[in-house]
Amino acid sequence: MTSPPSEDSKSLGKLSGTESLEFRVAQVRQLYAQSRAGILWALVSVFIVAIVLTGKVSFVNIVIWVSVYLLIQAYRYYLGINFPKLESPEATIKWGRNFSLLTIASGAAWGSAAIIIFPADSPVYQMFLTICMAGIASAASSVYSPLTICYMPTILAILVPLSARFFFEGQGSYEEQGINLFLGSVIMILAAALVSAGKQMNAALVESLTLRYQNKDLLESVTAQKGISENLNKNLLTEIEERKRTEEALRQNEEKIKKSLEEKESLLKEIHHRVKNNLQVICSLLRLQRRHVTSEESRTVFKETENRVRSMAMLHEALYQSDNLNRISAKEYVHDLTSYLFQSYNAAKQGINLRVEVENFSFSIDTAIPCGLIINELISNALKHAFPAGRKGEISVGLHCLADDCWELVVADDGTGMPKDIDVRSKGSLGLSIVQTLAKQLQGEMELNVLNGAEFRIRFKGGPHRGDEAIA
Amino acid sequence: MTGARILIIEDDLLIVMDLETTLKDLGHQVVGTISRGEEACQTIEETLAEVALMDIRLGGSLDGISTAKLIQSRFDIPVVFLTAVADVKKGSGLTDSWPVVNKPFREEELQLAIETALENHKGKNS
Asked: Is residue A6 a contact partner of residue A116, using CB atoms and an 8 Å limit?
């Protein structure tokens, strides 16, 4: 009997090779644990039977029977004390097989009692032996149930000879023969019942072990999943930490850039401030010098120069106040500049009207300075010459977009007008010469109309930017 | 109006020179010129100045705003700021009745600012 019975194989079929081995080892361990007390009980039973039957059957037979039985038990005992020393699963399985064979031999020894020490003449002692053997078989069905190769042959080895003994006990009356047949049948039924009970106990153990291994699988799977989850969590935490570090680095960079921009803005403001302060020094010098000249003409020259400087200072003021420190609102600048010039020349009191029409766009400093100085010259010129002897009138300033990237600055008055053939480059009109030069600087063209007063049109490309965004 | 007794607090001496003559031409009396805010209170005490005409950036450790606050706490005289910085008083906590003249200044602007400061001050005390 080297192959496991069907129910064992059925359960083992679900397990892997290693697990199958462990499963068999667990069965053998269970057998070892349950059979330790079995040996002692079997010895006690053998001696009781021997003592009780002495005198009823052949003494020689009793001695032979007890001797054989003791030899088998001695070997079983030897196997029992060796069990804890077993090191490999294969050795344990081999132990189980050897122990089972000895147990079957032990059962066969009990079965042989029905032949060699059967008290044929005494039904009472026959009953005593029968009860003892049935008890031993009952104990075997439960104690050796972990292994089918152990319990089933053992039960059969004990009870089949006893049953056969009763079946073949031919002497006596019909009544006695009937009783014997009945007893033989009962013993056979008992054998079947004990095999069945052993089988059930074996099935329970197999199921319990199967569940244990399945749970073990589940536990291993859960442990593996837990390990994977922990690794994922760890990776996630590392990633979060990394992201935090990156965000912190980005934030620090952003702060650095912001700080650097603030510093640049502060420096630019400082530059505009210093430029304005220097322009004040120039104005102060011009004013101090003006006070030392006597002729009205010279004083006018100084005053005009002061106005030119001031128109540039107003530009720096506007740049200082603008959000990006680079571009200014053309509308505000032209309004401020023309208003200042009108105040400076007391033009409003003289009854001269100012009309300013400037579209909403922004100037860069490179365009704003020439435009501002052109406006300064042309308005100053008009205020000085176009309205003599308290003549009233209007000066208009316009700055418009003609087409894409093409702009027109118009400064006009309805005063006395100018000679048609005026040479703006002549020494006598520095102001107009400046205007001509600045128009050239803007890469523009200047046109002069003298029909009703004087009208200067300067067309230039680039420079202004449309819209509020550009101003911001 | 009659001229006022004015103390000039400005660290650029060319501008001081211009201011002195301009203010005299406008009919005022320049009672003192100093370049550091720390000297302001003592000079006002000594000269009995009626108006302090002051730059924002000064030579000493005190700037124009701090000096003005000091003057505000100790004397009952108005301050006229003369500065290249347009938004000087923004967030400074100084009274709005004290005018600011932008550099480069015109005589008319300066005169108007002094008159406004004195009138506001007079209105406040009456």
From this structure: no
Q: Looking up tokens 């005494």, which residue turns up?
A: A122
Interface touch A276/B12, C-beta < 8 Å: no
Cα–Cα nearest to B88, from A273, A234, A155 = A273
A211-238: average pLDDT: 89
> Could A279 and B103 be called an inter-chain contact, meaning their C-beta atoms sit closer than 8 Å?
yes
Cβ–Cβ contacts within 10 Å for residue A113, how many? 26
ipTM of the complex: 0.88
Q: Which of A287, A308, A342, A345 to mutate to test the interface with B (most CBs of B within 10 A)?
A: A287
Indicate the pairing of strand A445-449 with strand A327-329.
unpaired
Q: In the block, which residue shows the tokens 């029409």? A: A357
pLDDT-derived band at A430 (thresholds 50, 70, 90) equals confident
Mutate to test the interface with A, among B33, B55, B56, B85 (most CBs of A within 10 A): B85
| This model's pTM is above 0.80 | no
Cβ pair A344:B106 closer than 8 A: yes
Q: CA A104 to CA A153: how far, in whole Å? A: 6
Give mean pLDDT, residues A454-459: 93
Length of chain B measured in residues: 126
Q: Find the closest chain B residue to A317 by CA distance.
A: B86
Compare CB distances from A321 to B84, B86, B104 and report the shortest one's residue. Answer: B86
How many other C-beta atoms lie within 10 A of the C-beta of residue A200? 12
Q: Is the pLDDT of residue A9 over 70?
A: no
Task: Report DSSP letters for chain B, one per residue.
Answer: ----EEEEE-S-HHHHHHHHHHHHHTT-EEEEEES-GGGHHHHHHHHT-SEEEE-SS-SSSS-HHHHHHHHHHH----EEEEES-TTTTTTT---TTS-EEESSP-HHHHHHHHHHHHHHHHHHH-
Mean pLDDT score, A335-349: 89
Give the integer Cα–Cα distance in Å for A219 and B3: 103
Q: Closest partner residue to B18 among A274, A276, A288, by Cβ? A: A288
A329: helix, coil or strand?
A: strand
- CA count, 13 A, side-chain hemisphere, B45: 7
